[in-house]
Amino acid sequence: MNTTTNTVPAVAPGSARTGGGLAVLGMAPFVLFALLFLVVPTALLLVGAFFDREGHFTFGNITELFTNPAIVSSFWLSIKISFASALGGAFIGFFVAYAVILGGLPEWMRGAVMTFSGVASNFAGVPLAFAFLATLGRVGLVTVLLRDYLGFNLYSTGFNILSFTGLTLVYLYFQIPLMVLVIAPALDGLKREWREANAVLGGSNFHYWQHIALPILLPSILGATLLLFANAFGAVATAYALTGSSLPIIPIQLFAQIRGDVLSNPNLGYAIAFGMVVITSISSGAYIWLRSYSERWVR
């Protein structure tokens, strides 16, 4: 009788430790980058928020976040714009992702939409503001075409690209693609067996979405909406390039405090930044928790 023995290659005693050392070395640039551009600046603004210009400890800067009417109104304006663009982006983005993933569209359309979403979700700042001004401004291409060929004056309806509605519309340009990218893995995670089991038990497509798909997707949808909220809340370049100081959202207020003009108060700017960090941290933390909760179904 011939016997075959499986031999396991010997592993050098120090190879595991060497691999771990290489992994740590590979992580070093990321850790250094995070320390220099995230941890240290956050710590500095946290400290600066509790000191005045003379270096004395004070709660005055934090108190002003709740008592200064201009700052309070700016926070609320930013929250409302972020909330509106997050809801709009989540709603439209979900159905776009559903159409290209589960809607039976050609496979090439999914690749095209996902590629465009990856580009558009990072398109912001001055180029995006210019694009919308050239398209929907008072003498923008679409505005002029509607006026000259259809007799419809867009601005006679009360629309203004430099308003709450206009800025929300601009934000949707990168909010919708971001929603598509975030929700796509959750839609891919819906197992075919769940739909087949629903059909075998006599359930309709409505029953499938009511009792199976939506309850599973709900944490992912809520988490993605919170991510969109945090994404819009911290956006400053697009808003400043589009509206200047005519729409004083809180990032623009922060910019005004730290840019060094005669009305600047850097320590108050630190406090404003600290308030923004708190709001975005709560939103991002809730997103991470909801995402981990939804991943249980995929596993």
UniProtKB/TrEMBL annotation:
Signal peptide positions (record): none
Any one Gene Ontology BP term: transmembrane transport
CDD domains noted in UniProt: TM_PBP2
All copies of domain ABC transmembrane type-1, residue ranges: 75-289
Protein keywords: Cell membrane, Membrane, Transmembrane, Transmembrane helix, Transport
GO cellular component: plasma membrane
Membrane topology designation: Multi-pass membrane protein
Broad class of where this protein is predominantly found: membrane
Transmembrane residue ranges: 30-51, 83-105, 125-146, 158-187, 207-230, 237-256, 268-290
Subcellular location: Cell membrane
InterPro entries tied to this protein: MetI-like, MetI-like_sf
Superkingdom to which the source organism belongs: Bacteria
Family per similarity comment: Belongs to the binding-protein-dependent transport system permease family. CysTW subfamily.
Protein name: Acriflavin resistance protein
Organism of this sequence: Labrys okinawensis
